[in-house]
Design a protein that fits this description.
Blueprint lengths: L2 H40 L14 E6 L2 E6 L6 H8 L18 E4 L2 E4 L12 E3 L13 H8 L9 H14 L5 H7 L10 H13 L2
Parallel strand pairs: 1-5
Antiparallel strand pairs: 1-2, 3-4, 3-5
Length: about 210
C-alpha cells in the first residue's frame, strides 16, 4: 500500500471516529436536555399542561361516595364505571346511545353513560344500579315491582330499565300509562318484555 493510500485509510478512520463521537455527543445532549425539560416542568418552572388539556386524575361522586380515578381525555362514563370502578351492574350494549343498557342517573336524570364523557360529570351526582338499593341493602320499590310483574327475561337490559324507571318516578311519581311508556322508550329489550316492564313501573308508582 502506498503512503498516499495509508494516509487515505488513516483519514477515513479518523472521519469514522469523529462521526461516532459526534453522534454520541448529540444523543447525550438530547437526553440531558429532555431530562432537564421534564424536571423544569415537574417542579413548576415550565408551562405545565398544554393549553386545552384536561387533568386525568378526577373525583367522581358515584352512589353517594367520592371516588378518585385516572380518566383518559376521551373516556366515556360506561368504561370508567365498569372497568375502573368495578361497578359491573351497568351494562355495555350498543355503545352508540341506542339500547339504553348503560343507563345511569346523573343528578337524578336518566342518561346514556356510553355517550357521556367522564370528564363532563365531575361535581355531579352519578347513580348506577348499585346505588338504587336502600341504605340497608333493601330493594327499591321499582325492583320489587319488576320481580312481581316478571319484568326481567334474559336480564341484560334490566339494570338500565330499573334506573330509567327510578328516574322517571323521581320526575313524575304518578305517570299515566302513556307517560310511563314514553319515559321508558329509550330502553330496548331484546326479549320484547315491554309490557312487563311497563306494568312494573305502574305498580311501583301506586306503591309510592
Amino acid at each position: 500500500m502506498s503512503d498516499a493510500d495509508k494516509n487515505d485509510a488513516a483519514g477515513s478512520g479518523g472521519i469514522r471516529a469523529n462521526r461516532r463521537t459526534v453522534i454520541k455527543g448529540v444523543i447525550a445532549s438530547g437526553a440531558v436536555g429532555a431530562a432537564g425539560y421534564l424536571a423544569y416542568n415537574r417542579y413548576g418552572g415550565g408551562l405545565g399542561r398544554a393549553k386545552g388539556s384536561v387533568e386525568r386524575l378526577v373525583t367522581l361522586n358515584v352512589n353517594g361516595k367520592d371516588r378518585r380515578v385516572d380518566v383518559l381525555p376521551n373516556e366515556t362514563l360506561i368504561h370508567t364505571i365498569r372497568y375502573k370502578l368495578g361497578l359491573i351492574g351497568t351494562k355495555l350494549g350498543c355503545d352508540h346511545s341506542e339500547c339504553g343498557a348503560c343507563t345511569v342517573m346523573i343528578d337524578d336524570v336518566s342518561t346514556y353513560s356510553c355517550s357521556t364523557l367522564t370528564h363532563s360529570v365531575r361535581g355531579r351526582k352519578i347513580t348506577t344500579i348499585e346505588g338504587v338499593e336502600g341504605p340497608n341493602g333493601e330493594l327499591h320499590r321499582v325492583q320489587k315491582a319488576m320481580i312481581k310483574e316478571l319484568g326481567p327475561q334474559c336480564g341484560f337490559c334490566t339494570s338500565g330499565q330499573v334506573v330509567a324507571a327510578v328516574a322517571l318516578l323521581k320526575a313524575n311519581p304518578t305517570p299515566t300509562v302513556d307517560e310511563a311508556r314514553r319515559g321508558m322508550s329509550g330502553n330496548l329489550c331484546r326479549c320484547g318484555a315491554y309490557d312487563h316492564y311497563l306494568k312494573a313501573v305502574m305498580t311501583a308508582s301506586r306503591e309510592a
